[in-house]
Amino acid sequence: MDDLKNFTRQEIKEICATLDFEKYRGDQVFEGVYKGAENIDDIKGLPAKHKQALKEKYFISGLKTAAMAVSKIDSTVKFLFELEDGEKIESVLIPDKERNTLCISSQVGCACGCGFCATATLGLRRNLTCGEIINQFIYTSNGTGLKVDNLVFMGMGEPLLNWENVKKAVAILNDEKGYHFSRARVTVSTVGILPVMKEIADNDYKFKLAVSIITADNELRDKLVPMNKKYPLIEIAKMCRYFSKKHEEPLMFEYPLFAGINDSIKDAEALYQLMKGVNYKLNVIPYNSVSGKEFTKPSRETALVFQEFFTARGIMAFIRKEKGADISGACGQLAAVYRDKG
Ligand code: SF4
Fold first, then answer.
1. 110 lines ligand 1 (CB under 6 A)
2. Pocket test for ligand 1, best of 103, 161, 166, 191 (most atoms within 8 A of CB)
3. 3-class secondary structure for 56-68?
4. Phi, psi of 246 (to 5 degrees)
5. Of 143, 162, 251, 256, which is least surrounded by CB within 10 A?
6. What are the domain boundaries of the chain?
7. Please, which pLDDT band fits residue 127 given cuts at 50, 70 and 90?
8. Is the pLDDT score of 291 beyond 70?
9. Can you tell me which atom of ligand 1 is nearest the CA of 118?
């Protein structure tokens, strides 16, 4: 049995064709799945014999909300979801005046082992299916009644190491008969999985690409991001230049700022030099402490000086506001709660 949420509209059309349904039934089934059908019998307008034929091989998945916490500071909502096999993942919904952003997970745990990240302590348990990725969007919207305007793949896992399922989930989210998310409202973030970055550069996928640079010092990056040994910074910078030649849209560089580690003007200068020729915006993220990790957050002044270094050189640089501090809801803190809950 397979989940209908694991298939794009085109694939559902092919499934319907193999079952000898009329041509238009593929769209009808796809729309039914994304207009709230909780099981195949709920799909409106589909004859009973078609439903029966589908049910022999397929089902429509749901997602169990194991826990939910709402920040008293800024109304950020953290969801702990339990998957069919008992594994748990988190999604974080961040309401804001201008837009509501949902941070979703792409894997249970992560294999990348980044030294500053709580999720890394879990190791990789498994990839999420396409349906499990999409369900985070459906169940956080339904669970809060909030309209999600913006989706970021920055929760648990390295999205480009679960690329086939992430790619499919984005296609369904983009689909006009699915959720019709435009390119501008979906961001996929990576630590730099080069072969997949190349594929993204060579194609026109409907999302923005963010790269977690972390530091411009290759040796330090080897320690902070073990994946750097496989895909080193210098090659990532080359790939970013290649991306900029092929796409008008700027890349987003994510730069967590750790006190005394990567937050000096020298660090800013090194990043600036390394990324010459790349069209990018910079998102400076003062680090959120994770229990058991030695990294600390720099002062507000340090973050402002780091930001100013780039804005003075014509590069758009932002400082990300901390969200959900009282519920461990900010990025990089997901797994600590998961582990505590067992
Ligand atoms: S920072 Fe991202 S890529 Fe690195 S271990 Fe954490 S989840 Fe994985």
1. yes
2. 191
3. CCEECCCCEEEEE
4. -95, -20
5. 143
6. 2-59, 64-341
7. very high
8. no
9. 6
- Answer yes or no: is pLDDT of 124 > 90: yes
Alpha helices in the chain (DSSP H): 9-18, 25-34, 48-55, 130-144, 163-174, 194-201, 218-224, 233-246, 265-274, 300-311, 334-341
Write the DSSP assignment of 23-52 as a string of letters.
TTHHHHHHHHHHTT-SSGGGSTT--HHHHH
Q: Taking the model in full, what pTM does it have? A: 0.94
Token pair for residue 332?
Answer: 């990089």
Which two three-digit tokens encode residue 5? Answer: 């949420």
Atom 7 of ligand 1 has which residue's CA nearest to it?
A: 157
Per-residue pLDDT, averaged over 2-9, amounts to 98
In CATH, the architecture of 2-59 is: Orthogonal Bundle (1.10)
Active site residue 331: yes
Q: How far is the CA of 64 from the centre of ligand 1 (A)?
A: 24
Ligand 1 atom closest to 157 (CA): 7
Those residues whose C-beta lies under 8 Å from the C-beta of residue 195, and which sit 6 or more positions away, are none
* Cα(263)–Cα(96) distance, integer angstroms: 27
Q: List, for residues 231-289, the tens digit of each pLDDT value.
A: 999 999 999 999 999 999 999 999 999 999 999 999 999 999 999 999 999 999 998 77
Give the fold, CATH level 3, of 64-341. Answer: TIM Barrel (3.20.20)
189 strand-pairing partners: 210
Q: Could you identify the atom of ligand 1 that is nearest to the CA of residue 190?
A: 3
Q: Looking at residue 143, what is its pLDDT? A: 85
Q: What pLDDT score was predicted for residue 292?
A: 65
CB within 8 Å of 159: residues ≥ 6 apart: 106, 153, 166, 188, 189, 190
